[in-house]
Amino acid sequence: MKRTKIIDLLAAQPGSEVCAKGWVRSHRGSKNVDFIALNDGSTIKNIQVVADAAKFDEELLKLITTGACLSVEGQLVESVGSGQAVEIQATAIEVLGTCGADYPMQKKGQSFEYMRQHAHMRLRTNTFGAIMRIRHNMAMAIHTYFHDHGFFYFHTPLITASDCEGAGNMFQVTTKNLYDLQKDENGQITYDDDFFGTQTALTVSGQLEGELGATALGQIYTFGPTFRAENSNTPRHLAEFWMIEPEMAFYDKQDLMDLEEDFIKYCVRWALDNCKDDLEFLNKMIDKTLIERLEGVLKESFVRLPYTEGINILQEAIKNGKKFEFPCNWGDDLASEHERYLVEEHFKKPVIMTDYPKEIKAFYMKLNDDGKTMQGTDVLFPAIGEIIGGSVREESYDKLMAEINRRGMDTTTLWWYLDTRRWGSCPHAGFGLGFERLILFVTGMQNIRDVIPFPRTPKNAAF
Ligand code: 4AD
Ligand code: MG
Fold first, then answer.
1. 432 lines ligand 1 (CB under 6 A)
2. Residue 120 has what pLDDT?
3. DSSP string, 371-393
């Protein structure tokens, strides 16, 4: 018999013969009848399988342990118990895969750290099932949003010879024999004999190539993995994370902020509209204020706050007795405690912070007339901190070159980027949304390692 997914069975009318396949969540037996909760990942909800003990071999029923994989045939009937409309009155049960008592997801209420150590099996739990379905739905929301708004999905390379953010925290890519590295007379490693004939690394951002796309196609977006070898062991950083980077010709700072806000709200609304069961589960089990917080974001207009005003607010707070671990004088990069103070305590809503000192931002941002600040537009979120980093781009060749030279950057790997400013340069802007940070917000999870199937962090590349 053809298998029906549990999500469809739960919505079906009782009366027909059905086949369900899935993994046992629980099995309890009384004298005459066994109840098996079966889940196949199509929904957070289980289907209840009812088996009359008299009709089944005792030895078979013993194999139906938590985690075992079953194929069940039977009649879909109205359920007398509360909690589900239908259940399966089993006529045949086949154990496809047994599951012994050493199954690591056996017990309920294991810590998240324990789950991370068993990341290959944690996907079979309710919580990780819910998170992964929401993750999928957010990816669909993102593609739908951009497609509907006339953006083109643009594929930028993962292997690159340039450092977009200029932070130097890149993973090198080489086919050189590390046990026998050739060096030149100055002790420098030579790369002309390497695979690409030049030093290459995994990209930290697709933005620079994205700008090439936007200044030809008008508006593009990327959606792919990015890599950062920053040794930040925090609940907000991964060494491999997914980033969405839209880039738009003819956008100014106002247009950019409007897009950032509209886009995030669209994603949150999509989650509320399409992931109801999973959100209700997470709201119950993980974070009792989750749905309220998601709905709250939709109602609020994001605050638009120049960095300088933000510093003033923080200084005022310090005067009134607020203690921060890190300093926040004009020119300092804000620490997450500062961002969270502004968002969670002062404004109590998302903040788009703008016009940062040029010393703390990347080279490509458009310089303001004051000569001191750049047109960055980061979005700061409650519980997350920075969720989007964006900016208007410097379109003037001379100003961009001046900034590159001031920073002492090497332009040999950037010549193609500079050409956009030489030929038909145009005002343009873009941003990067950290996909996992969005998933953190939407699921209410606390640790970024728990919203990607197989996290890559310092000292951890298992699975
Ligand atoms: O602020 P970032 O570094 O900006 C850029 O890379 C720009 N090139 C984006 C652009 O304008 N096209 O990174 C963008 C976002 C951050 O706001 C954050 O959400 C996320 O990427 N992010 C990380 N997420 C997880 N782990 C990390 N190590 C991250 N670093 C940045
Ligand atoms: Mg940033």
1. yes
2. 96
3. SSEEEEEEEEETTTEEEEEEEEB
The span from the CA of 195 to the CA of 313, in Å, is 52
Give the residue, out of 162, 205, 264, with the most ligand 1 atoms within 8 A of its beta carbon, to mutate for a pocket test: 205
**Inter-axis angle of helices 126-148 and 253-274, nearest 10:** 140
Query: Tokens 């998302």 label which residue?
Result: 350
What's the confidence (pLDDT) of residue 426? 97
Band of residue 166 on the pLDDT scale cut at 50, 70, 90:
confident
Q: How far apart are CA 372 and CA 357, in angstroms?
A: 6
Which residue, among 150, 158, 196, has the nearest Cα to 175 in the 3D structure? 196
In angstroms, the Cα distances linking 419 to 81, 127, 392, 398 are 69, 49, 18, 12
Structure tokens at 74: 């039977």
C-alpha 393/C-alpha 400 separation (Å) is 9
pLDDT over 80 (residue 436) = yes
Q: Name the pLDDT band for 126 (thresholds 50, 70, 90).
A: very high
pLDDT at 30: 82
Residue type, 341: Y
Task: Give the mean model confidence (pLDDT) for residues 123-130.
Answer: 97
Please compute Rg for the chain using Cα positions. 27
Q: Provide the pLDDT confidence category of residue 231 given band limits of 50, 70 and 90.
A: confident
Better-scored residue on pLDDT, 8 or 165: 8
Task: Tell me how far the alpha carbon of residue 431 lies from the centroid of ligand 2, in angstroms.
Answer: 9
Q: d(Cα 310, Cα 31) in Å, to the nearest integer? A: 67
* 433 C-alpha to ligand 2 centroid (Å): 9
Q: Determine what percent of the chain falls in helix, strand and coil, rounding each to the nearest 5.
A: 35, 25, 40
| Residue nearest to ligand 1 atom 1, measured at CA | 389
